[in-house]
Design brief:
It is built from 13 helices and 25 strands. It is an alpha+beta fold and 633 residues long. Strands 1, 2, 4, 12, 13, 14, 15, 21 and 25 form a 9-stranded mixed beta sheet that branches. Strands 5-20-16-19-18-17-9-10 form an 8-stranded mixed beta sheet, with helices on both faces. Strand 14 and strand 15 form a beta hairpin. Helix 8 packs antiparallel against helix 9 and helix 8 packs across helix 10. It is globular and about 70 Å long. The C terminus is likely disordered.
């Protein structure tokens, strides 16, 4: 039956898909790309008008509008129920937008709204400041001038016209406020909701390269990593040379170098036993066993292993800590002195790149379109959806995020992330104005329960104009204290970005120099995790991004979902190199006397992939090259 709000002119020609996805978050985009890569039909919808969901990047004006918008939206956690939903028949999905951010607290120097283009005093209405006001002819006459005198004057000999009024002096436009100057360059900002970094030899970067998605992305190394200890910033050593150049004591340098030299699996000597810790040992306990003092333990735990505590992982295990530490050590020198890489143009480039890969292999993408209801059979399995246009669509698998199915959220495994986004007029590290700088604030430095990670990005990362810096603060919120994001982060923000003025230039008074901090926004984000049970076998709910700086959680979860949907199929297989591709001859272009191809295969060019290990080739049937199969709506 036709629903009241059906919009049949927007209905799709294709109505059956192997995978239907709702939401373009990073995990969902990974699953879509992996499914499309092996030839599955994919429909990917999103009720937003942008890609990435919690992994999005915004222009400055759009980010500020998002803060204002989400103030009026309901908190998703308020609708989380402890009872599971019965997946039978039709299950409605709310079309109301959920807040990506909550508990927003925004501050702008000099106020957010100042109209610099209002008419000046005495200027004609509708005349912008800085323009010459043209007075009407009636104002050129005195009060006692009548029409007869005007006519006589106009006909007098030697007078061709009435003299024009003297020009009005041009009024200079008032100077722009700092906020107006920021908005003037709004399109040059890319502000992340969840900034991420990559280890040079991490699983994520290897997957990007093997799948070919790295061709859509650009990366740069971080310049340095610092620890905030004893009210000062200390350079985190990332190599043998850095260890001995650091301001650690001689005993601390020796202990740290000795520990880092045996974390590799090929380490030899009596200390090599550290590479195989007991299963029930925490990483913090392992560090204490290695005779590292509190300062070194904090450096290794928070700045090298990135042990970002949350409720789902209260204590980092020794095995996982050693795995992270080995990756960190192995990443040093891979592309440069720093082991960490960051993406240019903001973090939303990553989910967009995988959406692009899915589209290249036939995936269909539609923004501002969502799902009204899910449909299930009598056996409880997913059978299809009704989309926002009222069109019924069938599918074998359904993938979405927690914000679309809040009833599936596990409140015990979820946590809240506190974030701050600041814009400054200079680097807050006097001796380091690198394009990408990471600062780690250990737990307890400002009364914070968990480590605070501070990422400063400059114009070299293509996220802000020249002369400005975007600084991100992130930490896992203390669930017991339930503080606001401002209460959790304000002390760290004030300590690193104190409200001082930049050094005045020669001949310029200090009172006219710009302050270092011009924009500051605090907000919370949910990091929801779905329940481990209670879902139909072909429905998959993705977790939200966590507070860590990497994307390991997203890649691992996407692989698990894909392997459950398509057992035995390769996850994001390696793309063939251009030199491995050859084209079969045109139909009918064989040797003389050979029969022409049938009508069914006329015009078809089978793609052959060369096998570099032999002379045989594997034929891959394709109507058109993969790059021509994209279907993006």
């Amino acid at each position: 039956t036709k629903m009241a709000s059906d919009n049949r002119e927007n209905w799709l020609d294709d109505t059956d898909f192997d995978v239907i996805l709702l939401g373009t978050g990073l995990t969902e985009s990974l699953v879509a790309a992996a499914a499309a890569r092996i030839g599955k039909t994919v429909l990917h919808l999103d009720k937003n008008d942008f890609y990435g969901n919690y992994c999005s990047s915004f222009l400055l004006q759009s980010f500020d509008d998002l803060l204002q918008r989400d103030l009026s939206l309901s908190d998703l956690a308020a609708g989380v129920s402890s009872s599971a939903v019965e997946f039978r028949g039709s299950v409605p999905i709310s079309s109301e937008p959920s807040a990506l951010l909550f508990n927003c607290d925004r501050w702008v120097r000099d106020g957010p709204h100042v109209d610099a283009l209002r008419p000046r005093d005495g200027a004609a209405a509708g005349t912008a400041a800085g323009q010459i006001a043209v007075l009407p002819p009636a104002q050129l006459l005195s009060d006692d001038t009548d029409a007869t005198q005007l006519a006589d004057a106009a006909s007098a000999p030697g007078i061709d016209s009435i003299p024009s009024a003297p020009p009005v002096a041009e009024q200079p436009a008032p100077p722009l406020t700092l906020w107006q100057q920021l908005l003037k360059d709004s399109r040059r900002y890319n502000i992340d909701l969840s900034p991420k970094l990559f280890l040079s030899v991490g699983i994520e970067l290897e997957q990007l390269v093997s799948s070919g998605v790295h061709k859509y992305l650009e990366f740069k190394l971080t310049s340095n990593t610092y620890m905030y200890l004893d009210n000062a910033l200390h350079l985190v050593p990332s190599s043998k040379g850095d260890v001995f150049k650091s301001n650690l004591s001689l005993l601390e340098k020796r202990a740290l170098f000795k520990f880092l030299s045996v974390v590799r699996p090929d380490a030899s000597g009596p200390e090599a036993a550290v590479a195989a810790p007991a299963a029930d040992t925490s990483f913090a306990e392992l560090l204490r066993e290695q005779k590292l003092n509190d300062k070194l333990q904090s450096i290794v735990l928070n700045a090298l292993a990135f042990a970002c505590t949350n409720t789902a992982e209260p204590a980092l295990s020794a095995a996982e800590g050693m795995r992270r530490l080995r990756l960190y050590v192995d990443s040093i020198g891979k592309y440069g002195p720093s082991p960490l890489l960051g993406m240019l143009y903001g973090g939303s480039e990553l989910p967009q790149a995988f959406c692009r890969l899915a589209a290249v292999y036939g995936g269909m993408y539609i923004l501002r379109r969502w799902v009204r209801e899910l449909r299930f059979g009598d056996d409880g399995k997913f059978e299809g959806v009704v989309d926002s246009e009222g069109q019924p669509l069938t599918g074998r698998h359904f993938v979405t995020g927690c914000d679309y199915l809040p009833s599936t959220i596990d409140p015990d495994a979820s946590c809240v992330i506190s974030r701050a986004v600041c814009i400054t007029t200079r680097s807050f590290i006097a001796e380091d104005d690198g394009e990408q700088v990471l600062v780690v604030v250990p737990p307890g430095a400002f009364g914070n329960a968990n480590a605070i990670y501070v990422l400063q990005l400059s114009s070299g990362m293509c996220v802000c104009p020249h002369g400005k810096y975007v600084v991100h603060f992130v930490t896992v919120s203390d669930k017991a204290r339930k503080l606001s994001p401002r209460a959790e982060l304000e002390a760290a923000v004030d300590a690193l970005l104190s409200d001082r003025t930049a050094d005045a230039a020669d001949g310029e008074s200090a009172s006219t120099s710009e302050p270092i901090l011009v924009y500051r926004a605090y907000f919370n984000q949910h990091s929801h995790v779905p329940r481990a049970s209670g879902l139909p076998p072909n429905v998959f709910v993705c977790s939200d991004p966590d507070a860590s700086l990497d994307t390991v959680r997203n890649f691992n979860e996407a692989r698990r979902i894909f392997e459950r949907m398509f057992p035995g199929e390769p996850f994001l297989p390696k793309q063939p190199e251009p030199e491995e591709l050859t084209w079969a001859p045109e139909p009918g272009a064989g040797p003389a006397g050979a029969e022409a191809d049938s009508a069914e295969t006329a015009g078809r060019l089978p793609l052959a992939v060369s096998n570099p290990e032999g002379d045989n080739t594997q034929a891959v049937a394709s109507e058109t090259p993969p790059t021509e199969q994209a279907d993006v709506a």
